[in-house]
Amino acid sequence: MEKLSGIQENREFVEARETSRNWGTMLVWALVLGLLAILGLGLARAQEGPIGIGRNVPEFTLTTFDGEQLNINKSRGKVVLVNFWASWCKPCQQEAAELEEAYQNFKDRDVIFLGVDYVDTEKEALAYLEKFQITYANGPDLGTKISQAFRIRGVPETFIIDRNGIIVDIKIGPYTSLAEIENALQTALEQ
User: Fold this and answer.
1) Which helix (H) or strand (E) holds 31?
2) Are 81 and 116 within 8 A, CB to CB?
């Protein structure tokens, strides 16, 4: 009888170990599936490309190099041009003077310009702004939060937002002329 009791205890021990192993295996699979789901969502979002015309502008606040905080929602009622740039970006340099000239031509017409400096150093960014005599609001994209919200693919990229917070124009790459910028802004003002 003592031998039978030992066998019973051994069987219970083996069953308990198998049950514990099954729970461990299920937990590992649940974690793996959870990580795959998160990765899949991230890849799906990356494949969406930049946000499109007709969509609401993503919520963001830009802290300028001067320390001023500009929230996009407070710009409702005005047309907003958001330009993503970097000091190391040669195409950005090609459009810098025209963007500043367009700003000077439109700043008194309910148009706001915001420059978002992408993956740059403050020293180099400030030198860029000084070199091209850019006077409209500019600030760094800390942690690339703003560029991620817009899902940009590179710089320069420019988004024009109408008075209702809807994206009405997107320019991927540099503007080729002052007229191109002004036409896009004029169209947004007339909507």
Assistant:
1) helix 2-47
2) no
Number of domains in the chain: 2
The answer to whether position 52 is within a domain reads no
Residue 31 belongs to domain spanning: 1-47
Residues 145 and 170 in one domain: yes
Each residue's pLDDT tens digit, 152-166? 999 999 999 999 999
Q: Is residue 54 part of a domain?
A: no
Contacts of 68 (CB under 8 A, 6+ apart): 137
**Bridge pairing between strands 79-85 and 111-117:** parallel
Out of 6-15, 17-26, 141-150, give the one with best mean pLDDT.
Answer: 141-150
Q: What are phi and psi of 74, to 5 degrees?
A: -80, 0
pTM > 0.90? no
Count other Cβ atoms within 10 Å, centred on residue 154.
Answer: 14
Say whether both 23 and 82 belong to one domain: no
* 32 and 120 together in one domain: no
Question: Both 2 and 75 in a single domain?
Answer: no
Q: 185 burial class (0-12, 13-18, 19+ CB within 10 angstroms)?
A: buried
CATH at residue 148: 3.40.30.10
User: Residues of the chain with pLDDT > 70: what percent?
Assistant: 77
DSSP E strands, 92-142: 111-117, 137-140
Distance (Å, rounded) from C-alpha 6 to C-alpha 87?
78
